[in-house]
């Protein structure tokens, strides 16, 4: 079962090696230069057994919905525009997504530590580490 502390709205406070991660995804130079300057927000919601993760910025938004432990077809529109087979599982204290497709060793992991949301994005040996603080409503 998902750690309900993940649910809520989060504001990015650090973003390490985002450009390296995007380079591994073959994202163009111009888009990478814009994307590293953006301030992202993350919204995680649960609706029954469906989970929704929204990554929001003024440049692009990316929304994914899934059921735990069920493989699904994902189109990474607005990121690298690839079709991947994804599965999200709960592993220890982390929500982990494995994405199978053209790129190797691709996926992400979210977890809570010290009242902050941590996200690692990984692809072909590149790891981007992001940290978010909760937005109080």
What does this structure look like?
With 137 residues, the protein is mainly beta. The protein is built from two helices and ten strands. The protein has helices spanning 18-24, 29-35; strands spanning 8-16, 41-47, 50-56, 62-66, 72-75, 83-91, 94-100, 106-113, 116-123, 126-134. The protein has a ten-stranded antiparallel β-sheet. A hairpin with a 2-residue loop joins strand 2 (41-47) and strand 3 (50-56). Helix 1 (18-24) runs antiparallel to helix 2 (29-35). It is globular and about 40 Å long. The model has no long low-confidence stretch (mean pLDDT 93).
Using brief descriptors, characterize the structure shown.
mainly beta; 10 strands; globular
Which SSEs are present, and which pair or pack?
Elements: E1 8-16, H1 18-24, H2 29-35, E2 41-47, E3 50-56, E4 62-66, E5 72-75, E6 83-91, E7 94-100, E8 106-113, E9 116-123, E10 126-134
Helix pairs in contact: 1-2
Helix content: 10-25%
Distance between the termini: 25 Å
Indicate the radius of gyration in whole angstroms: 14 Å
Order of helices and strands: EHHEEEEEEEEE
- What would you call the shape? globular
Structural class: mainly beta
């Amino acid at each position: 079962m998902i750690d309900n502390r993940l649910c809520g709205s989060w504001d990015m406070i650090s973003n390490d090696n985002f450009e390296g991660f995007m380079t591994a995804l073959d994202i163009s130079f111009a888009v990478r230069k814009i994307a590293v300057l953006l301030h992202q927000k993350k919204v995680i919601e649960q609706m029954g057994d469906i989970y929704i993760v929204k990554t929001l910025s003024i440049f692009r938004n990316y929304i994914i919905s899934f059921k735990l432990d069920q493989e699904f077809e994902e189109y990474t529109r607005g990121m690298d525009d690839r079709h991947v087979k994804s599965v999200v599982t709960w592993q220890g204290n982390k929500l982990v997504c494995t994405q199978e497709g053209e790129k190797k060793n691709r996926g992400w992991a979210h977890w809570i530590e010290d009242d902050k949301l941590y996200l690692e994005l990984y692809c072909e040996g590149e790891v981007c580490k992001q940290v978010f603080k909760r937005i109080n409503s």
